[in-house]
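Hi R.,

Quick one: here's the Xylose isomerase sequence you asked about.
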Amino acid sequence: MTTGFFEGIAPLRYEGADSTSELCFRHYDPDAVVVGKRMEDHLRFAVAWWHSFAWEGGDPFGGQTFVRPWHPQDDMGRAKMKADVAFEMFELLNVPFYCWHDADLRPEQGDYAKNLSTMDEITDYIGEKQAASKTGLLWGTANMFSDRRWMGGASTNPDPDVFAYAAATVKGCMDATHKLGGQNYVLWGGREGYETLLNTDLNQELDHMGRFLSMVVDYKHKIGFEGAILVEPKPQEPSKHQYDFDVATCIGFLRKYGLESEVKLNIEQGHAILAGHSFEHELALAAAEGMLGSIDMNRNDYQSGWDTDQFPNNVPEVALAYYHVLKGGGFTTGGTNFDAKLRRQSIDPVDLIAGHAGGMDVCARGLKAAAAMIEDGGLEQALDERYAGWQSEAAQAMLGSDLESIQKRVLDEGIEPQPRSGRQERLENYVNRFV
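And here's the predicted structure, written out as tokens:
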């Protein structure tokens, strides 16, 4: 028996690029083989519980626009109805995974013990539904940014009681993730930063954040959780400056506290843009350092200065993103989570299905383009040619030499470098052949 929320909507099927159906997949064929692996196994799509089911349509200037049968989200009956609708949508989209924050699943009780009890109850219920579904948990996380208790941060809070509450919250969420067979656990420090340095001790807060993350890693091993621990970079919003600013900052933080072999990164397209980077840059850097764990796929409105979390629609951007994912070896425990939400005026249930279907098709087109570029090898060949000089014996010896010896060689050999074209426009034209 269904809830009726998606009444009249049939499960989506792959119909090919020429289909004129509104609700179908034109490019996402889960069983199509791309560079030796099924497309579903490459992309590992996940639906975000928070934007798809918990978000009510508010923004900084206006309140609720979505009116759902499970609103207000203030009791366990409605929480279970929300779970029923979620699994109906997972079946319609045939997605392998979903993701959650604890506050998305259960009503806020204003009391830790009650929140823990309702979290246990709802995850037991979700576990039953999951057992009858093909859809499993990609990752869980704790919402430590919405409630007023987190206004000064969680692990970085100046109040040790808040640190304790955060630690207890994360333990409960890790237990729930482990119970549901989650493949990762994510920490996003939504308020792990500052609004002014006038009241902030940077060193102490960073040390506390490092110690907190070490406790998380220790607990992972204690309970036998085999998934990955991931942190998610974001530069600001809601904090003026967040300590997990971007990929490079997170890598430096992990190395400082000796966690680089234990923790990887969950990288979001919208956060990359807010940090002044491209998604491609953040993924390439994480992959180069062996720290690419999973991705949140969305986009920002480039005319807006905040995190709009829209569904992806730019195939060239997505293709370059998956190019670096594939070059980095592809996902293991990670996947493609749609941290994307409808626009406030898209109030119909069918909009929720259409938004995900369109995003899945864009990602499938990007993956196919990325795979074609890798199989063609043109970008790798261009890199090899550009750096070919470093393959010489003299160039390699120079890296182990010193300034005096290098100066002598320049003088003795009369070295006068001649600039060579970087061929950027030609390479951009090359990429456009595939997208």
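The chain has two domains: 33-376, 394-432.

Cheers,
M.
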